[in-house]
Amino acid sequence: MALYDLTIHESLDLMRRGEATSVELTQAVLDRIVQVENSVQAYLTLAPEWALEQAREADARRARGDGEGAPLLGVPLAIKDVLCVEGLPCTCGSRILEEFVPPPSASATAVERLRAAGAVILGKTNTDEFAMGSSTENSAYFTTHNPWDLERVPGGSSGGSAAAVASGMALGALGTDTGGSIRQPASFCGVVGLKPSYGRVSRYGLVAFASSLDQIGPLARDVRDAALLLGVIAGHDPRDSTCMPLAVPDYASVLAGAPDAQNELSGMRIGVPREYFIPAQGVQPQVAEAVRAAIEVMRELGAQVREVSLPHADYGLPVYYLIAPAEASANLARYDGVRYGLRVAERGDGVWETFRQTRGAGFGSEVKRRIMLGTYALSAGYYDAYYVKAQQVRTLIKGDFDAAFQDVDVIACPVAPTTAFKIGEKTDDPLRMYLSDVFTFGCNLAGICGISVPCGFDGAGLPIGLQIMGPAFGEEAVLRAAHAYEQATEWHTRKPDIPVTSEAEEDAAKDLT
Amino acid sequence: MRLTLAQVEHIAELAKLALSDDEKARYQEQLSAILEYAERLQAVDTSAIPPTATVLPLRNVMRADESRDSMSREDVLANAPQAEADCFRVQAVLD
């Protein structure tokens, strides 16, 4: 197997045994990027020279016997371009931050923890503008292509990270999930994506979209890698007052210690929400079949499967599309062209006209749509009817999950109603686009955790994701269930067949990097 | 809930967004459709339900009141669209 196709834990085993160096591994990934990035377009910024420099440092550190306490030593990873990384631009997929290079002190805690663990940062991946979208089509720069079918979207908003991991252009990646933005692209690209519980991972250095919903999490090639990455980035951070001061379990060893899938699932109670399997939800039949088959596999592995009810599931979408835009409209008020970012002004314009012109030109249509929606929901006369009402129904949605987790340990359901859709298919109809996250909003609104794990392919050869959700700070149960299922199946081992670009195109790509 | 063009213009002004006529027309349609969809929330009885602003049990997170370094002036101004004499240069605030 090519070095770029290894899982993180496989690559660490090779490096520990001295059978590969981080420089070899990183170079293999950079070579792979030259081969397929022209087709996939996962990266907004690549830092190949810096990556090799980090790899050399990692190799030197290992040679010194200084690898203890560096659980990701020499592993090349990608970072979604809404997280600040010292020295690299942070565009958030937006024109308004096209030239923005964050100050060193803004570097994200999650990224700093990866670096302290020895990881090699390759670059920044494409995203819908300010993480608002389900396809990367809202990126102001370009749309990322799904590695399984280049005419289709990779999902979003962490579509660049998912596509990079699926296509061998990073061994793992960080994404962010506000309403499904890690899990849905993981599902569309056939990789594992974990949204941790709200408060599990520090949001310091993450450019805010919806502060009560945003959470940073890993995308990886298997559950063990996701657990390994989560263990590194999780934990209290005094720079984020919403990051819970709770001890971090050793997630990776929870899985490594499990002797077999049977024991991991033995006695585990898995809830299947009745409301998520109603035909009216627009679930593609092959998706429903694959998810039902996956639940059956878990039952055969010893889990107790029972039906649960989430009576307010239908309200997740409208609640999300009032609360998230309301928070976004406040968070994005800072882009005024004064201290950083784009400024658009004619000679003689006053400060208010500069604000209007800068924001009108700097934000794309989806971001403006959501700022408008959020501003309306928060405006005088509508605040109670929309914003407060949405927050009250949010309480009911959270209550549904609390009640379900009295009876079950985890909940299993689809990640998305369909597999990856065609580029351009939904761009004219925002409401239809929003429906592609209908099964993932609840997890964010309730602050709980959820994972997407590959569970099959549809007739067109596109990956399907199984979602397993657990209660707040219940990542161990979610990881254990996902790991047991994954190890009993082979979906996660399949790789997309991506056309490799010709030599001439390779040279052009090299010039770009 | 159908928004009028005047309402769309009012929201855009609150949000300080310059919009073209095309954008105003499009947002009038799209926002109306989304708000219509959101109307279904009115069917839920929430009379005795408190709102959830955050899912965490944390309230008033405090830290020790200790001095520490702030960002350097150079870092603060590094991304300024216009800077002059160690300050951000802005458009006229007063006529």
Describe this structure in words.
The complex is a heterodimer of chains A (513) and B (95). With 513 residues, chain A is α/β, with parallel strands linked by helices. An eleven-stranded mixed beta sheet of chain A has the order 1-3-2-4-6-5-10-11-9-7-8, sandwiched between helices. In chain A, helix 4 links the parallel strand 2 and strand 3. The longest helix of chain A has 25 residues. Chain A is globular. Chain B is mainly α and 95 residues long. A two-stranded antiparallel sheet of chain B has the order 1-2. The two termini of chain B are 39 Å apart. In chain B, strand 1 and strand 2 form a beta hairpin. Chain B is flat, with a radius of gyration of 23 Å. Classes of the chains: A alpha/beta (513), B mainly alpha (95). At the A-B interface, helix 11, helix 12, helix 13, helix 14 and helix 15 of A face helix 1 and helix 2 of B.
Termini Cα gap of chain A = 25 Å
Numbering strands along the chain, what is their spatial order in the largest sheet of chain B? 1-2
Spatial extent as radius of gyration of chain A: 22 Å
Characterize the overall form of chain B.
flat
Query: What class do helices, strands and sheet pairing of chain A give?
Result: alpha/beta
| C-alpha geometry of chain A | globular
Strand percentage of chain B: under 5%
Q: Cα distance, first to last residue of chain B?
A: 39 Å
SSE order of chain B, as H and E? HHHEE
Instruction: Please count the helical segments of chain B.
Output: 3
For this entry, what is the oligomeric state of its chains? heterodimer
Q: Number of DSSP strands of chain A?
A: 11
Can I get a quick summary?
Chain A has 513 residues and is an alpha/beta fold. Chain A has 18 helices and 11 strands.
